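Re-run with default settings, no changes from the original entry. Doing this only to confirm the output is reproducible before filing.
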Amino acid sequence: MKQVNVLGIDGGGTKTEAILMDENYQILGSGKSGPSNYQSVGIEVAKNSIQTAITQAVTNSNSHQPISGICLGLAGVGRPEDVRVVENLLQEIIANLPIKWALQPNTIIICSDSPIALVGGIGHSVGIVAMAGTGSQIFGQNSQGLTKRVGGWGYLLGDEGSGYDIAIRGLQAALKSYDGRELPTTLITDFQAYLDLTNIEGLIEVVYGRGWGPTHIAALAPIVSAAADKGDKVAKKIINDAVEELSIATKIVISTLFQPHETFEVVTIGNVWKSMINFRGQFEDSVIAVAPAAKIIWPRHQPAYGAGILALKAIAM
């Protein structure tokens, strides 16, 4: 491949990351900015975030090569109409930025954040990515190019096994226990201590009065995990149920895409895998029980790097 530069963009509900990559898969520059899920923050905010991240990535590099390819992997981009919105947004960005562009229609890739997380996490496009952070989703692709997604419906409609799901179930369980509708649980005093509340009724002011959203609530998930590790039965059930939900979703993707003894990797991405005690171990045991040849791994690269790989592949085709 001749000397080329490409941009890989990873855009989500809280931040946007961009990398400038050369034909040897070397990162030349990187940039970071605010959210770019246009579904939640609006088109103008998303455009500004992407534009800022790209500007930083290019400015931080010493390269003066034109940009020959770009891949934008953005949360909230799952339908053809979403792709059209981002295409228009990208054209505005290209017109606004004083950067040398050498893009062709086939070297512009716009997709959801799932494919770039898979490619970045594993290093190529065959395998499964199990995402469990504030939200959750399982996505996979096989060697024939067939893909399968399970979950990713957002905190109101799904996201089982996510940080938000674990935390909100923990909060609900604490309040039910306080009412007498649930078994006694240390979650009551655990949440009180962490949030510096006089009593558990103070959750009303914290969650509603302060306008807490999914990200704030998801940050409480480790409290549920810690209680489970200490033997709290209510917390243990919440954690076990979360592991089971992610395991079921992953097994569906496996059975759809891979043969029983086919070798593939499952990369785990997101804070839930890192912050929950023995959570990932339970998940691994459950998956390996049905797919012995599967290998559970930590991410090899960031999703933005995966976007860069996809942009380079588009140029090579």
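Residues 48 and 247 are 37 Å apart (CA to CA). The longest helix spans residues 233-257.
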